[in-house]
Amino acid sequence: MKKIILVFLAFLAVSCADNKKNEAEQPVQDTVNASEEPEYRVLDSKFINKDSLMAPFAEELANFSEERYSEIKPLIFDQNIPEIQDAILSGALTYEELALFYLKRIQKFDRNNNRSLNSVIFLNPNLLKEARAKDQASNEGQKHAIFGIPVLLKDNINTEDMPTTAGAVALQNNLTGDAFIVEKLKENGALILGKANLSEWAYFFCGECPSGYSAVGGQTLNPYGRKILDTGGSSSGSAVAVAANLAPVAVGSETSGSILSPSSQNSVVGLKPTIGVLSRSGIIPISSTLDTPGPITKSVVDNAILLSAMTGQDPEDPTTQNTAVISNYDTPLENSSLEGKRFGAIEGLMEDSLYVRAVNDLKNAGAEVIIYKAEEIELPNFLRLLNLDMKKDLPAYFQNYGGELEVANVEDVYHYNTQDSLARAPYGQSLFEGIMKDSATEQEFTAVKDTLRLNGRAFFDVPMEEHNLDAVISINNYHAGYAAVAQYPGITVPMGYGEDGAPRGLTIFAKPFEEQQLLEWAKEFETVSQRRISPENYTD
């Protein structure tokens, strides 16, 4: 199968046509030839099924009629959070019915049928009880816009009442407390819907496995081309569930491309924030240098709301102490404008007709677009950075945030999997093998990080300074690796569909801590383009 060479190194050969000569040397992320049906060794999970997933809600779902589902569907399906809240405020809908609506769709589409997407691993058994409590409290005082809204969490994010597995069999019993961002979501009134499937170990595990696969969750599938189009990774289940209206919003995580890739490939909005905007405490890591959680939604306004609901200074994550808590992400973005903004478009991407159309959309909205030739800059030892970070960061997670487990490091997990490799690691463990073999002195490791950061910054800073740019625009996760090491935030917004039906996203990168500007620009592009279409096989 013509597919992944390596997951997280998502910098896609610098700038496509600008650097064709180096493409073979640069690892790329989750690209599948859409004309070839992927050859999945494993499709459905051997560890979960629809009956076990839905068991806690059997009685309530039996009493939730198809008639009522159809009545409330126009109030929820493809609606943004403010529109849903308006329906609840008017009395046309309750938070309990909102939760039941998504449970019904998960029951209908996610497991064990010819339209299954395998995007959800666990559901919160207390969801409906908590939703009823929100209904009783719904008229009490001013609330965050996330109040009562079900949120799906990528299954590397700790939360009570459900295991946190990273898709790995070794962590099936990893029962923990809430991650810091989950505490913030609950403080702001969000309902935790459940846990989303993901590329196992956030796609830093098996070099030959397809994106969206985990041993616990099975193979996540793209609703725009089930078993044909790649889901992107590693936040595959988060993006798929939002795209198919199995959840209103979801949280993903990114090291290099793992929010931007699945969001763009499933026609949703994904934001990779600057490290320090959101806490990483209680999230199964790859790299403390690069990791960050981030929101995945159908609209930019929902993205802003979800981001806002997770922010806060976490004493256990020092990166969040370097920036003030920003409280205005959940504003309606009313003051957004593209007038006079200067965006850099990469010359090598101008062969893509959807990108060219997006460039024209930006121009028509008042932006100036400067086409430039991207500099050829390498990212040496990117893989080593991930190896060395995960080697120390995973044991720290187990010690500080993990449940009672029999594994304490990468080696333990590797040897656990070899005891039943067919069920636990059918695609092998080549990336874990690389982690175990790698080592460096502290001085060498510091040099690796410093070089990557400087090179990543140079990729963006040189053209931004030369052309006085506010941002750089790209496609999907093509330049996510540079943004990762530069610690630049990025947002992707649906910009259309290829001839094969594959969704594509316009991705905007800005300087650190310019999330508010990114959201405003993305909102304007979304408004003038309006390119997102729901997957046609999942609209009933």
From TrEMBL:
SUPFAM superfamilies: Amidase signature (AS) enzymes. Residues 99-404 form the Amidase domain. PROSITE patterns: PROKAR_LIPOPROTEIN. It comes from the Bacteria. Transmembrane segments: none annotated. InterPro entries: Amidase_dom, AS_sf. This is Amidase family protein. It comes from Autumnicola lenta.
